[in-house]
Write a structure and sequence with these properties.
The protein has 118 residues and is an alpha+beta fold. The chain contains 4 helices and 4 strands.
């Protein structure tokens, strides 16, 4: 799959900022580019645990993780997704296989903090 990126989005992929905001019209590619950069940052990180949060876990899964240009399609075997958790990890999560080892990305609902507090 080839993804054509505008100059603005290529600049976004190269930016070193800790907090970034994407704005644009519907179907501009914000989610696609943001998801690609997010996984790249997870792979580069020295941390083993990360969070991908949205208003609703199901919508995050549908629109960011499992969509036609979502994380699973773009990254293939480098990412495994467990929407119902797996083993001792009861929360929905992804395992990102990176050169720095496996990383866990918890997929959480920011509307209900009690759903992921232990």
């Amino acid at each position: 799959m080839e993804i054509l990126l505008s100059e603005k989005f290529r600049d976004f992929m190269k930016s070193p900022f800790k907090v970034e905001v994407l704005e644009g019209v519907t179907s501009a590619g914000k989610t696609t580019v943001g998801a690609i950069k997010f996984i790249l940052k997870v792979m580069e990180s020295d941390r083993s645990q990360h969070i991908l949060a949205g208003r609703n876990v199901g919508v995050v899964a549908k629109n960011i993780i499992e969509s036609d240009r979502g994380i699973l399609k773009v990254w293939g075997d480098a990412v495994d997704f467990y929407p119902n958790g797996k083993g001792s990890q009861k929360l929905p999560h992804m395992i990102v296989h990176s050169p720095k080892g496996e990383k866990i990305v918890y997929v959480v609902n920011y509307n209900n903090v009690s759903s992921y507090k232990t």
